[in-house]
Amino acid sequence: MSIKRSFFLLLPVFVTGCAYNPFGEKEPAPVYQERPVIVQAPEPVPAPAPAPVQTIEINKMPDMPAPTVTPLEPEPLTPEQTRQMLTPEQEQALNALEKPTSLDPSSTSLLPSPSAVAQPPQPAPLTMAMNAVPPAPAEPVLPVPSMEPGTIVPQPAAAVPPSVAAPDVVAMVTPPAPPPPPPVFEPLQTFAPLSAVTQTLVLAADKSVARGNIDSASATIERAMRIEPKNPTLLYKLALLRLKQSKPVLAEDLAKKSALMATNDKPLKKHSWLLIARAREMQNDMDGAEKARKQAEKF
C-alpha cells in the first residue's frame, strides 16, 4: 500500500517536470543575404624574352717579321778626338816633335847622327806565372815623325810599375751545429680504473678515434665529463683530442687541469706536462716547451 501511495504522490511531479521547457522559444538566427565578393586573381606577367646572344669575331693579328739586327761599326776617331785622349805630357812631346827647333850649323856637329839616335828600350818578354798580376792597359802609341838632322828626340818617361795590392785573407767560419730535434711525443696508454659508465663511454670514444672520427670521440668524452667533471683521465683524453683537432691552446688548458687534478698519479702528471710541451711547440713557443719538459722530468 505504501508503494502505491508514494507512486500516486510522485506521478504529478513527474508529469509536471516533463511538460516544463527550461529553454523556451527563441528567435531564429539572422540570415546573411548579401552577395559574396568575388576577387579575381591578377593575370600572370609574361617573362621577358631573353636577349639575343651576339657573336663577335676576333680577327687574328698578322704574323710580324722578326726584327733584324744591324751591327754598328765603330767610327774612326778624328785627330782632334785623338788629341783629347792624350795626357798633358804626351801632348807636349807631340808638339815638340811636330815643331823642330833650328840650330846653328856650328852646333850640328855636336848632335848625334840620325842613325845614332837612341831608340826606346824594348820591353823584355814576360813569363806568366800562377800568381802573376794582370798587365796594365797599354797607352796609345803615338806616330813617330820622320827624323831630320838637328832634331832632338825626347826620351820617353820611365813607366812606373803599378802597385800590387795584397790579397784579402778570408777566414773560414764553420756554421754552428743545428739544435737536436725535440723528442717524439707519445701519449699515455694505461690509466687508473674508471667507473662502469665512464669506462663504457671512453671505450666508445677510442673506437671513434680508430675510425678517424675525432669530433664524435670529443663529444663522447665531453658526455663522460658531465658525469665526472673532475676526473684527470678524462681531462687528459679530451686534451689529446683537442691536440689532434689542431687546437693547441685548448689542449694546453685541459692538460694543465689534468696535471693539477692528478695528485697521486705521477705517470699521468708527467704525460700531462709532456702534452703541454707538445701544445707549446705547435704554438712556436720553444722556450715554454723546454720548461714544460723540465717540469715533466720531476715526475
From TrEMBL:
Ranges annotated as biased composition (Low complexity): 100-119
InterPro entries: TPR-like_helical_dom_sf (IPR011990)
SUPFAM superfamilies: TPR-like (SSF48452)
Chain segments carrying region Disordered: 99-121
PROSITE patterns the UniProt entry points to: PROKAR_LIPOPROTEIN (PS51257)
Name of the protein in its database record: Beta-barrel assembly-enhancing protease
Provenance organism: Methylovulum psychrotolerans
